[in-house]
Design a protein that fits this description.
The protein is mainly beta and about 1450 residues long. It is about 10% helix and about 35% strand. The chain is built from 14 helices and 93 strands. It has a six-stranded mixed β-sheet with strand order 1-33-41-40-36-37, with no helix packed on it. β10 and β11 form a beta hairpin. The longest helix has 28 residues. The radius of gyration is 44 Å and the shape is globular. The two termini are about 45 Å apart. The N terminus is likely disordered.
Length: about 1450
């Protein structure tokens, strides 16, 4: 690691020299070009040549949004609309032009369908380089042509001015023109229009008299206003008072636009108009900016921000003077004062992209990286309002960064490229060694002070500077801090997080470059408050359709007495979390909704307050019958013998389970007692056939779940046809059509076609001004009248009516009508609503309430007024409102985005009177679970540590709230159920995580899931990563121990000829062993070989003499104890190695020589591996049972029952657990074996009883002798958070199927051999996270009871067997999260030995099954071998 740090800093120095940068750990270089003479990559020009602009269009027109980007190679262009990518491949109206522009043919726009209007953005991508986005362009489509006000007939004195109103919507103004006597009117300085569309005629002459009307031409047929007559009167004989016909009104304009302040007056003599700006005379003569129009109006062209101010119009005719003034506000779109610059940088550096913008209103700035929004975090920060700071650079930070500035009137973008440089070799010359004795001399909650000594290579160190690299543990982003002056050997790291582990390393640097890195130092900052930890083992289960019980345990780190618990729960998908105080460790919540998911969490309280919350557990109440009937039941008579039934599901929340089908009941209306029933599937329709002609039938439908049938709908009836109607041709023309016009509507009535034998499915009504094809309405075949609403008064409409069926539409019938004119004058506006309030109900719903001052005090609405609510997101660039009408004083706004700020306002309308919009109210919707997975998931191997990988990712695009955490799932089987994957929790402000101790050369699959305060989001797609094949040379020494399978690595395959090293390094715990000379080793090998041959002979003899009857007896006996074998741990096809049997047979002789047949088992506090305390399920029972059936010879039923009867005599052993810091969550997952279950033994395994006994003799752990630190860590690590249940030897099957030996020996033999030889079986083992991912611990072997074994220390051999000696490749693993601080002593059952008489009886029973001579010879031979081995051992 030190060498790696040295290489990194040498590279920093090289590139610093290359870039002319004095400090390699300082700020990165900003440049738009590559450094001269360097071999580093150059910046790639990548920018937009043309960007889309805001566009106004009309219905039916075609438009082009221009976009073109430059890069080599050519970029790929895509388009987004309202933030979502457009699929242009299958779009027949929108298409991408070769230069990247977007063509939209025949713009579609109607009242309820506006697919083309919105915000468009061009996205350019170059593979392997990055992505940039253009500015956002708004496409506005002019609405339907409507007049807000129309011109009215008037008269005017010659020489005066006149105004003819024609008010239209702002987006229609460009399409308005005027006609005089139905001829186009030409505009000039005397005759001009205002931005609202009104016409001003100044210095009126006789030729100005006539009929005037305004025309809207926005595609389709033009729309004409009413005609107004203008009469010109001769000059009056007497002076007339000055009056304003139109005063200047406040204006808001964007820079570059023009503005007109109207100042239109009437009076005699003709007045003179002058203008003032900010109380100073305004000179208009000869000015290019200010133009005085005829009549006195002022036009300002090419507006700048300097033109803002107060403009006053002063009118004087010699007799009197009048004055009016108005404000001009000027807005400016965003403009860059300083654009981001391209940057070269090294990993671990901090960089800042600068971006200065101006605009009015002040623009907001956001940053985009490769097309995706940069979400501020610990390492991506917005500084000085607009600049982006990236801390601790990593390679994945490379790419294009864009500064997007936007305000109410526009947006702009500017980008820059970041290139991460590779490190280069250092210059020649001696480099300093690693600084010594790096310590944290001061540790606080938010800062740490580090001190160190000079490197050994430079004891004085006066000319050395030092660089401190630091990072959070598990984060791959290193930060850098430099000492302030040469020779200084301390630094204070600020702005740290409380109770967080940081890793520090220090590098010295001389004139030749950076030297070696110090050994990493881990330091944890202080916690701020001593609060309880999370309550472990929280579980929830449903008792009924309306109740759930939740249980939990006491927090492992209570930090004092726990006073009480608070149980929080809420319905999944809502934001209404409720809580209840609980004194104990369980609680049952009733009154819940049926078949509904609820989430639960528990918080413990001590005297300091609430502690850490548990993770949410989600459980669903049980299902029940539906509580409501299906909705909207309808009948459609198909013909004389069949009726089609349609319905909809019962209302949401009343299903109470999964609806599995529907029951349809029907009967003849005349015979109510005869009911037929039809069972339908989950579809929402059913065709009932085989009915009688001309008969009325009644139908009802009910939904059912697996619990039963819910309530049915009311009966509804329909009558089958007398005879089948013809549907091979279209219907005939309706027999009559009548229209009755009103002011804004026309009532249409009709009669059906005379030919009743042709099927009519409905009627199509077309209408429009001058043409019936503008709008079409379709109604049911039963309907005979319809009211066409929202028409224009005094307009000529053509109406058509056609009958239709499945073949097509019939012949139309035409009629025309003129709507009635308006007779009421323009009303005065109403008062706007007051007290508008927004109440947030959920993640997508807000209730708006208000009061209406024009109503009585009781706020009761008695007239036909209605209210319009409008809302939009509170984003300056978003000016697009949504609206809805209501007749009450509140409105429920739905379908909103989660965690988004909205603004709301209300107006009231009564008849033709409307108010202005009210004051705005604001509300932010609640958060929702993320609806998209984390993105950009990458997995890389950590340099120099092939068994450690680093997972990186980016937050979800749709986080729907603040991300509070991530869960990494990983497995070696991509097709495994998700609950079988190992999980890694990560806090929400981190986007990277390290997973250590993986198996080499193994493919792993990774998924990531994000969570916020509302729950878990979807998982990302699985990412595959194969770990490297070989370990690197710079691995830590204790990772190199042989047979480290216990740490997740794969054991070495050691052949049968393997000879262990002569040193004692292979003893179970690394303690030294006396070296054996070569002669003794030779004797052992020869002895083992002879024993193996004997065992083969014995097995052959046993197998040939097995009888079917004994097998049946054994199976019956075992099944009676075990019950059914549910799990797949069978060993039918696995033949045991001969050594297994030989091992057990060897143990028969020392049993008789035991000095104490019933040694006393004491409660001894001894740490053990997790296997000893793992609960054993039925698969273990089945395993042992079938194994021993197939491996052993005949056993009598007596011997089995005797051992079974002694099961209760086993004493217990107490085990303490060391305190451990809290860690993330625990869950259990099986991981399927990837290897052959038959493994070779290596030096640490129990190859023979003699070998294992030797280990116990050389390296015992006496009671009361403390273990070394490393041993203690190993042993305690594996038992954290293990359920305190009964131990493995306590399983009934072991007792049932025990061999002819003491239970202790039987158990020990099974543990040692079954674990070694068939590790592919589903044995439960503890899997500790997060320190050892995918790490399995084998069951430690219990040694045989040797003749020299001291029975007073019965548990010592359990300690000396290391888990790593027994590789296990198919295990259930537990991913341990919140690990225990302390655990009470745990009882562990250890079998006791039966007495001598029982052993003798077992031997007698055993011998009775075989020929006495053969057994005697075999036993004599075994005794000889045991004596030889004992002699070798003693020597």
């Amino acid at each position: 690691m030190a060498a790696r740090g040295a290489r990194r800093l040498l590279g920093s120095l090289w590139i610093a020299l290359l870039l002319g940068q004095p400090d390699p750990a300082g700020a990165a270089r900003s440049s738009s070009q590559s450094p001269a003479g360097s071999t580093v990559r150059t910046f790639t020009p990548f920018y937009f040549l043309v960007e889309p602009m805001d566009t106004l269009s009309v219905r039916g027109a075609f438009i082009i949004l221009n976009c073109s980007a430059y890069c080599e190679p050519s970029p790929k262009i895509e388009w987004k609309k309202d933030g979502t990518f457009l699929n242009l491949v299958s779009d027949d109206r929108r298409q991408l032009l070769p230069d990247g522009s977007l063509l939209i043919n025949s713009v579609v726009h109607s009242k309820h369908n506006k697919p083309d209007e919105g915000y468009y953005q061009c996205v350019a991508t170059v593979e392997s380089l990055g992505t940039i986005v253009s500015r956002t362009a708004k496409l506005t489509v002019a609405g339907l042509p409507r007049f807000t006000s129309q011109p009215e007939s008037t008269s005017v004195y010659r020489g005066n001015s006149v105004i003819l109103n024609c008010e239209v919507n702002a987006d229609l103004v460009p399409f308005v023109r005027w006609e005089q006597d139905r001829q186009p009117l030409f505009l000039d300085d005397r005759v001009f229009t205002l931005p609202s569309g009104a016409l001003i005629i100044s210095n009126v002459t006789d030729g100005d008299g006539g009929l005037y009307r305004c025309v809207i031409e926005s595609g389709g047929s033009p729309k004409y206003s009413d005609e107004a007559e203008l009469k010109v009167l001769p000059d009056p004989e007497v002076p007339l008072n000055l009056v304003f016909l139109r005063q200047p009104s406040p204006l808001t304009k964007v820079t570059g636009q023009s503005a007109v302040f109207p100042c239109v007056t009437a009076g005699f003599p003709t007045p003179v108009v002058r203008w003032m700006k900010n109380e100073e005379e305004l000179t208009t003569e000869g000015s290019e900016k200010f133009l005085l129009l005829a009549g006195g109006s002022l036009e300002i062209s090419d507006i700048t921000e300097d033109d803002a101010g107060t403009y006053a119009c002063i009118v004087d005719n010699g007799n009197e003077t009048i004055e009016a003034q108005a404000e001009l506000a000027v807005q400016a779109p965003p403009e860059f004062l300083k654009q981001p610059a391209n940057i070269y940088a090294h990993e671990s550096m901090d960089i800042v992209f600068e971006c200065e913008v101006t605009g009015k209103p002040t623009p907001t700035v956001k940053w985009i990286k490769n097309g995706d929004m940069v979400i501020p975090s610990d390492y991506f920060k917005i500084v000085k309002e607009h600049n982006l700071q990236v801390l601790g650079l990593v390679k994945s930070d490379e790419g294009f960064y864009q500064c997007i500035a936007e305000n109410d009137v526009g947006n702009a973008q500017a980008g820059a490229q970041l290139i991460i440089l590779e490190h280069a070799p250092a210059t020649t010359g001696p480099l300093p060694s690693a600084p010594r004795d790096v310590v944290a001399s001061l540790v606080s909650t938010r800062f740490i002070k580090l001190t160190w000594r000079t490197p050994a290579s430079d004891p004085h160190g006066d000319n050395l500077t030092y660089t401190v690299f630091y990072t959070k543990e598990g984060i791959n982003r290193e930060r850098v801090e430099n000492t302030s002056r040469p020779g200084e050997m301390q630094v204070t790291i600020q702005n740290l997080m409380p109770e967080t582990v940081y890793v520090f390393r220090v590098v010295a640097q001389n004139k030749h470059g950076p030297g070696e890195s110090s050994v990493p130092l881990k330091v944890a900052t202080q916690p701020e408050v001593q609060l309880p930890g999370p309550a472990p083992n929280i579980r929830a289960y449903a008792n009924s359709p309306i109740s759930i019980t939740v249980t939990w345990d006491t927090p492992l780190s209570g930090n004092g007495e726990i006073q009480n618990y608070k149980l929080y729960y809420m319905e999944k998908g809502t934001d209404n979390e409720q809580d209840v105080d609980v004194g104990g460790h369980s609680y049952t919540i009733s009154g819940l909704k049926k078949y509904t998911e609820y989430s639960f969490r528990v918080v413990a309280y001590n005297k300091h307050g609430p502690g850490v919350s548990t993770q949410d557990v989600v459980v669903q109440t049980l299902s029940d019958v539906p509580s409501a009937a299906p909705q909207n039941l309808s009948l459609e008579v198909r013909n004389s013998k069949s009726i089609m039934i349609h319905w909809q599901t019962p209302p949401a929340g009343t299903h109470n389970g999964q609806i599995t089908g529907y029951k349809i009941r029907y009967r003849k209306a005349s015979r109510k007692s005869e009911v037929s029933e039809s069972i339908g599937g989950t579809q929402l329709f059913q065709l009932i056939e085989g009915l009688e002609r001309g008969t009325e039938y009644s139908f009802r439908v009910a939904a059912f779940t697996s619990n039963g049938t819910g309530p049915a709908t009311d009966w509804i009836s329909a009558e089958t046809f007398e005879s089948d109607l013809d549907e091979t041709r279209v219907p005939e023309v309706p027999s009559s059509l009548h229209v009755r016009p009103l002011v804004t509507s026309i009532v249409v009535s009709w009669t059906p076609p005379e030919n009743q034998n042709i099927v009519v499915r409905g009627y199509a009504i077309g209408y429009g001004i001058g043409s019936p094809h503008a709008q079409t309405i379709k109604v049911d075949y039963k309907q005979r009248y319809y009211t066409i609403e929202n028409l224009d008064p005094s307009s000529h409409y053509v109406i058509t009516l056609k009958a239709f069926n499945n073949v097509g539409e019939g012949i139309p019938l035409y009629e025309s009508a003129v709507t009635r004119p308006h007779t009421v004058p323009d009303p005065s506006p109403m008062m706007p609503p007051v007290g508008v309030q927004a109440s947030i109900l959920s993640h997508d719903t807000i209730r708006i309430t208000w009061a209406d001052n024009s109503l009585p005090k009781n706020q009761k609405i008695t007239d036909a007024r209605y209210y319009t609510v409008r809302w939009k997101t509170n984003i300056p660039a978003n000016t697009k409102y949504k609206t809805a009408n209501t007749t009450t004083l509140s409105y429920l706004v739905t379908s909103l985005k989660p965690n988004t700020l909205y603004e709301f306002s209300v107006m009231v309308t009564k008849g033709r009177r409307s108010s202005t919009w009210s004051m705005t109210a604001h509300g932010t919707t609640f958060e929702l679970v993320p609806t998209s997975p984390p993105k950009d998931v990458t997995v890389v191997s950590k340099e120099g540590k092939p068994r450690t990988i680093i997972v990186n990712w980016q937050p979800p695009s749709e986080a729907n709230g603040k991300i509070t955490g991530y869960i990494i799932y990983y497995s070696t089987d991509v097709n495994a159920e998700i609950h079988d994957w190992v999980i890694e929790p990560v806090v929400g402000n981190r986007l990277t995580h390290q997973i250590q101790e993986l198996t080499l050369d193994t493919p792993y699959y990774f998924k990531i899931q994000a969570r916020n305060s509302k729950g878990m989001g979807p998982m990302s797609e699985a990412v595959q990563f194969r770990t490297p094949k070989a370990e690197s040379s710079d691995k830590m020494p204790n990772d190199q121990a042989l047979g480290s399978a216990g740490k997740g690595s794969r054991p070495l395959d050691i052949g049968p000829d393997y000879k262990p090293p002569m040193s004692g390094s292979n003893s179970p715990h690394g303690s030294p062993t006396s070296p054996l000379d070569s002669n003794m080793l030779l004797v052992i090998i020869v002895s083992v070989g002879v024993i193996t041959i004997v065992i083969v002979v014995i097995v052959a003899v046993f197998c040939t003499r097995r009888t079917t009857s004994h097998q049946k007896k054994k199976r019956a006996a075992c099944k009676s104890v075990n019950g059914s074998h549910k799990y797949k741990g069978n060993s039918k096809d696995v033949k045991p190695p001969d050594l297994w049997i030989h091992h057990e047979r060897l143990e028969l002789k020392p049993i008789d020589k035991s000095p104490d047949p019933n040694p006393i088992m004491t409660d001894t506090p001894i740490p053990r591996n997790s296997q000893d305390i793992t609960p054993v399920d039925n698969s273990m029972d089945s395993n042992i049972h079938q194994r021993r059936n197939s491996y052993r010879g005949h056993e009598s039923e007596d011997s089995m029952s005797t051992l079974a009867g002694r099961r209760g005599m086993r004493p217990k052993m107490m085990m303490p657990f060391d305190s451990q810091p809290p860690q993330p969550v625990i869950s259990a997952h099986p991981i399927h074996s990837l290897d052959n279950p038959h493994h070779h033994f290596h030096s640490g395994s129990l190859a023979s009883p003699t070998r294992s006994y030797l280990h116990h003799q050389v390296n015992p752990w006496p009671i009361g002798t403390s273990m070394s630190h490393s041993d203690r860590a190993n042993s305690t690590e594996s038992v954290r958070n293990t359920p305190s249940t009964d131990t493995m030897p306590a399983s009934s099957s072991q007792t049932c199927c025990a061999d002819h030996q003491e239970p202790e020996s039987a158990t020990a033999s099974y543990l040692a051999n079954a674990q070694e030889e068939d590790s592919g079986q589903s044995l439960p083992t503890a899997h500790v996270r997060p320190s050892h991912p995918l790490k399995s611990f084998a069951v430690p072997a219990v040694p045989p009871t040797g003749s020299a074994y001291d029975p007073a220390l019965p548990s010592t051999p359990l300690l000396t067997q290391q888990a790593s000696n027994h590789p296990v490749h198919s295990v259930k693993t537990a991913s341990i999260g919140t690990l225990g601080r302390t655990r009470p002593p745990m009882p562990v059952v250890v079998p006791s030995a039966p007495d001598v008489q029982e052993t003798t009886r077992m031997l007698e029973d055993s011998e009775s099954n075989y020929e006495p001579d053969e057994l005697t010879k075999e036993m004599a031979h075994l005794e000889g071998l045991m004596k030889d081995l004992n002699a070798i051992t003693t020597a």
